[in-house]
Amino acid sequence: MQKTYVQIGSGKIGRGYIADLFNEAGYHLVFLDNVEPFVKALREQGYYTLFKSSRETGEIRKEIIKDYEAYCTATEREVSVEKIEAADAVSVNVYPGAVADISELISEVIKLRLSKDKEKPLDIMVGVNFLRSSTIFRDKIREYLDTDEEKEFLDNKVGLMECIVGRMGAIPTKEMLEEDKLACYSNDVPFITVDDSYKGEAPNIPQIVLKKNVPLWMFHKIWVGNMSHSLGGYLGRLKGYDYIGECRDDPEIAKELVFAQQEGKYAMNRELGLSYEEMEPEGYLENQKKGYLNHAVNASEKDTINRVCADLVRKLGKQDRLVGPALGCMKNGRVPYFLAKGIASALCFYNEADQTTVEVRNYIAENGVEKAIEKYCGLSDDVPAEKALKQLVIGIYYDITDVYPFDVKY
What we know:
20 helices; N-(1-d-carboxylethyl)-l-norvaline Dehydrogenase, domain 2; globular
């Protein structure tokens, strides 16, 4: 009998990555989303095209995903809950703003499960790009539970396994969308790494790679991987680039990204205890060198800077991809020059269609960059490491912008 996989949040990562893996493994796919017109389009078309870029050559191949179901969690709530409760595998892939709604949905699934089989675990993969996601979801789900029995089930029978998202979730190009309005654009990473904390049995498929302590490795992903991705975009926009591939093909930016990654790893080692042997296993540096200034791959990658660098307020946060590792360096005896340059470049980033960048730019114009760093990065003069990082970022910001030196205090 064919097993069923339910995808909660059917955006770029959900459909372009995890659903693709389970489709390859032979699962029947069920997509859940809260945008009714999008769900209707998925249902009426009955398929979508996945454009997958080779990490080795940059070549793009197409796959057709079909024979799925799709439901709207806003207007088809009951059936959505039933589909999750009956599924063999479930994954959540959403932005932070959707945590409350998804947590309420999962609380309803818990109540249904208790009415059917209170001994059967409920396992849900959590594949998001923010830290401590399993704890955040668990705490929010608890708010929607009413009885001690429901809360006990959450504590003992609900697995919320954090995942390391390994594929990009790029915006499809104009040509891709002309071919298929529901297209997804990603790369060809053939697996997803999932925390080994299932309450029941994990899917026994090669596309699922179990790993201990994924919540810790999520810091590594954010502080090293996502940091480098975003930093390339912030630096690239200062040079007028539109695509991440252009940034990675720029020798100056490519060099700075490698140095920034070294700062991120230092923070991981000193602040969170990951060894360099764990972060740089055999073959790591060779693969990194192979991808360095790989023009064929970079030229084909059309992931936009606006997408990668979006949601600026969150990405400037004290524990996020730039400030988090920079503080980890500062507190442990290393000056994070390249991370600080990334923070300064992020403060310059602007996209008129992204209200978070509009907010930051307006705040800087009205209050100055020092106040903006205090507000958005959470840095305080009361903490020596934070004060030093703030001063470093301010200096670099003034250096890379057209500020008139007599108009500011430094």
